[in-house]
Amino acid sequence: MALLKKCFLSALGLLLAYYFYPATDSFRPEMLQGKRVIVTGASTGIGEQIAYHLARMGAHLVVTARTEAKLKKVISECLKLGAASAHFIPGTMEDLVFAEQVVTKAGKLMGGLDMLILNHIAPVNLRFFNGDVASIRKVMDINFFSYITMTSAALPMLKVTNGSIVVVSSIAGKLITPLIADYSAAKFALDGFYSSLQKELQLMNVNISITLCILGFINTDSAVKSLSGIVENITPSPKEECAVEIIKGGALRQKVIAYPSSIYISMWNPIRTIQEYFILLTYNIDNITRNQQFS
Ligand SMILES: NC(=O)C1=CN([C@@H]2O[C@H](COP(=O)(O)OP(=O)(O)OC[C@H]3O[C@@H](n4cnc5c(N)ncnc54)[C@H](OP(=O)(O)O)[C@@H]3O)[C@@H](O)[C@H]2O)C=CC1
Ligand SMILES: C[C@H](CCC(=O)O)[C@H]1CC[C@H]2[C@@H]3C(=O)C[C@@H]4C[C@H](O)CC[C@]4(C)[C@H]3CC[C@]12C
Questions:
Q1: Closest ligand to 230 CA?
Q2: Which ligand is nearest to the CA of 260?
Q3: Active site residues
Q4: Which residues pair with 86 in a beta bridge?
């Protein structure tokens, strides 16, 4: 029995190590120096903090969100902090044409693209689903379809640079919580889409990394405000540290990061990992790669 327990614990340790490697210790801020990065939802909250950290690391930045006045302040702060260059493109991600244009314009402004950080979300209303399908569609456009639109526009540039896509998601895209059906649907959709795309890129030997960032409660103004009086006895984690972990995950090309680290355990699903591995074994990869081109 003791031997069985030992074997089980060793296997568990190995699986955890495999899943969460590489360790974040090897991160160096210079990795971002001169890199060309787009950050969405950067007028406030976590996105704003990501922009400031990247600026300190000497990256070229294009930031976007709807509020022009806030974006102007963000880029002027970024330039003071040491950004190699900083531009802003204001607009709404509800408009998918705008989403695509942000990528093409940013590519022209920076002369290419190394990292796309997808972070924006529509303002969250915690409420019971009231049958309003149009509002769900709007949230899906902003929180999901704009991500895919930008990804699709960025792939050709990222192929050239062996670049990275960083997708900011939530524990609410892994576990079920009430009052946020629209938000949660979009986050689960992001997980499904980007996890599948990750595998496709691997199969086609395309060297673009995708990092899915699973976040718990973070102390941004909007989150604290909308959860006040609804969710109690949880201390939010700091947005500044959260932003660093997101950048590290992207720079180290990790498949998934979780912040705060206490939420790793609720995401860990070894049965799923093993099943995914065996499902992939049933695919005739040679046939697929011969007949299909990754566009
Ligand atoms: N804070 C938290 O507790 C958690 C956050 N996350 C994730 O982290 C990310 C950032 O969250 P957080 O910083 O709290 O969010 P904020 O609400 O603080 O910021 C959201 C950003 O998105 C922008 N935005 C809103 N609507 C639109 C739109 N229609 N088009 C373009 N941009 C828009 C906002 O700017 P503007 O209004 O100017 O457009 C703002 O810059 C999100 O992906 C979220 O899901 C995940 C788990 C927990
Ligand atoms: C209640 C959850 C925390 C559980 C824990 O033990 O830590 C929160 C974790 C993630 C939160 C949601 C989220 O993803 C961000 C949104 C941000 C909005 O501004 C507020 C609502 C959120 C949907 C938020 C709701 C609580 C969490 C699920």
A1: 2
A2: 2
A3: 183
A4: 61
Ligand 2 pocket member 124 (CB < 6 A): yes
119 alpha carbon to ligand 1 midpoint, in Å? 6
> pTM for this structure?
0.93
Determine the atom of ligand 1 nearest the C-alpha atom of 183: 45
Q: Helical H runs in the chain?
A: 2-20, 45-56, 68-81, 96-110, 133-140, 146-161, 181-203, 221-227, 239-251, 264-267, 270-281, 285-291
This complex has an ipTM of 0.97
For domain 28-269, give its CATH number from 3.20.20.70, 3.40.50.720, 1.20.1260.10, 3.30.70.60. Answer: 3.40.50.720
What are the tens digits of pLDDT across the range 213-247? Answer: 999 999 999 999 999 999 899 999 999 999 999 99
Q: Which atom of ligand 1 is nearest to the CA of 42?
A: 41
**Does ligand 1 come within 6 angstroms of the Cβ of 70?**
yes
Burial of 159 (0-12, 13-18, 19+ CB in 10 A): middle
